[in-house]
Specification:
- The chain has helices at 34-39, 81-87, 107-110, 125-135, 161-169, 194-201, 216-229, 270-273, and strands at 8-17, 24-31, 47-52, 56-61, 72-77, 94-101, 114-120, 146-152, 174-179, 190-191, 208-213, 236-239, 255-256, 259-260, 267-269.
- It is an alpha/beta fold.
- Helix 6 (194-201) packs parallel to helix 7 (216-229).
- It has 8 helices and 15 strands.
- A hairpin with a 6-residue loop joins strand 1 (8-17) and strand 2 (24-31).
- 22% of the residues lie in helices and 30% in strands.
- The structure holds flavin-adenine dinucleotide (FAD) and FE2/S2 (inorganic) cluster (FES).
- The site of flavin-adenine dinucleotide has 20 residues, from strand 4, strand 5 and helix 2.
Length: 280
């Protein structure tokens, strides 16, 4: 039996600084052993533990899509010990990846549905994975309309800028990129908070699911908008980022009531969350 605590060794293939403040970097990782890549089967919404020798492990959402072969990607925000150390590593360095962990967005249920993706700030990582996954030519016919509302405080904080621009040019995905404010005279997208833009664009709730990830304040003010648009709680999906240790439902570090966020989540419907103690 495989030891669930043992990470796969991976090489940092490249590092992209995503944001103007240099606090978010995307790490493209390549498995040292091809058989490990074959075992690392994931779906958008799942996460993995990134381990740095002598520093520790951190849970990070998988930003790549399973349709992207030969590598996996993670976008890491520099906040503390391990993420700071990771930010100082270089292409060619070796780290560990343990996973994939947790559940994913409910891809079977989403088939035949319109999907509204709402993201804020640097919590767009597994949403990037989801968009790439749905836009894959083989997958695109399985989903209805795709609407994306993605906001950041100012343009320099948006992740994946080249991909956002490419998606903006497509006619099989409706992009609503927004910033809280900007002094850039060439800014060609929306200005306004995510809840207001969601309300203005008013994606239809009929036969639709909404996936929302972002800062708690953004989620708090967007949920009433979704309710007003007619999305019931079982069709609003979110992902929680609680403190974790083992990532596999053993240590008891991440539980909310009876649910282990690492194992039963991190993806929950609003309907499910409303039955849990408000400890997240
Ligand atoms: C399922 C899941 C998915 C995640 N996905 C991503 C991702 O895609 N990109 C990303 O950058 N981060 C993500 N996170 C958050 C990430 O795990 C933490 O930022 C990281 O563990 C911090 O470790 P550190 O050693 O750098 O900081 P520490 O030195 O441990 O802590 C520094 C500061 O960060 C805070 N912090 C630590 N852990 C968390 C946490 N889990 N949530 C909120 N604040 C925390 C601490 O309270 C402290 O203020 C995710 C977390 C979970 C549980
Ligand atoms: S992190 Fe150990 S039980 Fe969830």
């Amino acid at each position: 039996m495989n030891n669930p605590y043992l990470p796969y060794p991976v090489r940092i293939e490249s590092i992209v600084t995503e944001s103007e403040d240099r606090n978010q970097k995307t790490f493209k990782l390549v498995f040292l052993n091809p058989e490990d890549e074959a075992k690392f089967k994931y779906m958008p919404g799942q996460f993995a533990e990134l381990s740095v020798a002598g520093q520790g492990e951190i849970p990070i959402g998988i930003a790549s899509s399973p349709t992207e072969k030969g590598f996996i990607k993670f976008t890491v925000n520099k906040v503390g010990k391990v993420s700071r150390y990771l930010h100082n590593m270089k292409a060619g360095d070796i780290i560990g990846v343990r996973g994939p962990l947790g559940n994913s967005y409910p891809w079977e249920t989403l088939q035949g549905k319109n999907v509204v993706i709402i993201g804020g700030g640097f919590a767009f990582t597994t949403l990037r994975s989801s968009i790439i996954y749905m836009l894959e030519p083989e997958n695109r016919p399985k989903y209805g309309n795709i609407d994306v509302v993605y906001g950041a405080r100012f343009p320099g904080l948006l992740l994946y800028k080249d991909e956002l621009a490419a998606w903006e040019r497509r006619d099989d995905i409706n992009m609503h990129i927004t910033v809280d404010g900007t002094t850039d005279p060439n800014w060609k997208y929306n200005v306004g908070f995510v809840p207001a833009v969601t309300k203005a664009k008013a994606p239809s709730a009929e036969n639709s699911y909404a996936i929302i990830c972002g800062p708690p304040i953004m989620i708090k003010f967007t949920l009433p908008v979704l309710t007003e648009l007619g999305f019931p709680p079982d069709r609003i999906i979110s992902s929680l980022e609680l403190r974790m240790k083992c990532g596999i439902g053993i240590c008891g570090r991440c539980n909310i009531g009876t649910e282990y966020v690492c194992k039963d989540g991190p993806v929950f419907t609003l309907e499910k969350l409303s039955t849990l103690p408000n400890e997240y």
